[in-house]
Amino acid sequence: MLYELHELQKTVSAPLLAWVHASHRLFSNPYSPLAYTPVSRHIAASSELITRLMRSYHKPAWGIDHALVAAQSAAESHPLPAETPALPAGRLGVPVVIEPVMIRPFCHLLHFRKQTERRGPKVLIFAPLSGHHATLLRDTVRTMLRDFDVYITDWVDARMVPLAAGPFHLEDYVDYCKEFIRFLGPGIATVSVCQPTVPVLAAIALLAQEQDACVPRTMVMMGGPIDTRRSPTVVNELAMGRPHSWFEDQVIHRVPFNYPGFMRRVYPGFLQHLSFIAMNADRHIEAHRQFFNHLIVGDGDSAESH
Q1: Cα–Cα distance for residue pair 46/60, rounded to 1 Å
Q2: Pick from 56, 63, 188: nearest CA to 137
Q3: Are 140 and 100 in contact (CB under 8 A)?
Q4: pLDDT tens, 161-195?
Q5: C-alpha to C-alpha distances, 178 to 125, 133, 157, nearest whole angstrom
Q6: CB under 8 Å to 192, separation ≥6 — which residues?
């Protein structure tokens, strides 16, 4: 019922959100006379803070349409207009096309295809499956595009996957990793960030055990819970202090009827978000307080970084 109540709250609060957004525009738009009253900044800042807290955020765009490559290779393989200036460090920009090369029910394998013959060695980035969008790693992708042919796992929101597509458990996660590695072939490099480090490690270990020719050349694991016994965090302590059944009862819920994945059992994103905040509540409260103050004094750059 918790997921249904969350969706009901979103629906009921939609008119209030629209009203608060309109209030923000009235007291911040330079063409509005209300924007020049003594309390205009306070009202606009309060309205924006409430709007941001209540808004549902959609997946952001990648925003990657070109890559910086070595000037010599760019000039040889994809000539650019004569008026195109050389970028710092002897690099030029080449166009990038983002295209799915493998589509599975729970994940799309994306290729950032550079419009040049010299794309560099292949690197497969495994992005976190839940709690984040793969676009969180856009800066990582943008940097690696300079020297590599980049692929990344773009996981599908589980509530958008129909129940007929079947379940998705840890063994399915490992199978996906093996399938993507085999698709790209021998000699690739892999980078797993946070959550996927465990299934990627398992997948590569299984490939090695099977003496598969597609075992990656390198395996980089960043910020992942490989051995949770080492340097335990609050999350580790909570996990060790509760039985598996407690988590299944408390955090696993069925997707409401208004999504394609109706009745699928998931760990809802809004609960993940609340869990993140609960771990560092004081930090989040202070960040929002500073955000409000930056809006009051007109510090747009600091507010935007928040």
Answers
A1: 25
A2: 63
A3: no
A4: 999 999 999 999 999 999 999 999 999 999 999 98
A5: 13, 21, 21
A6: 125, 126, 200, 201, 219, 220, 221, 222, 224
SS (H, E, C) the chain: CHHHHHHHHHHHHHHHHHHHHHHHHHCCCCCCHHHHCCCHHHHHHHHHHHHHHHCCCCCCCCCCCEEEEEHHHHHHHCCCCCCCCCEHHHEEEEEEEEEEEEEECCEEEEEEEECCCCCCCEEEEECCCCCCCHHHHHHHHHHHCCCCEEEEEEECCHHHCCHHHCCCCHHHHHHHHHHHHHHHCCCCEEEEECCCHHHHHHHHHHHHHCCCCCCCCEEEEECCCCCCCCCCCHHHHHHHCCCHHHHHHHHCEECCCCCCCCCCEECCHHHHHHHHHHHCHHHHHHHHHHHHHHHHHCCHHHHHHC
> Per-residue pLDDT for 4 more than 60?
yes
85-94 tens-digit pLDDT: 445 455 678 8
Q: Cα 11 to chain center, whole Å?
A: 25
CB 84 within 8 A of CB 141: no
Burial 89-127 (b: 16+ CB within 10 A, else e): eebbbbebebeeebebbbbbbbbbbbebeebbebbbbbb
Rounded percentage of the chain residues whose pLDDT exceeds 90? 62
Q: Are 223 and 194 in contact (CB under 8 A)?
A: yes
Over residues 27-59, the pLDDT tens digits come to 999 999 999 999 999 999 999 998 888 888 888
CA dihedral sign of residues 201, 143, 52, 18 = negative
Report the chain's C-alpha Rg in angstroms. 23
Q: What is the pTM of this model?
A: 0.84
Cβ atoms of 51 and 24 within 8 Å: the answer is: yes
Residue for token pair 């399938």: 179
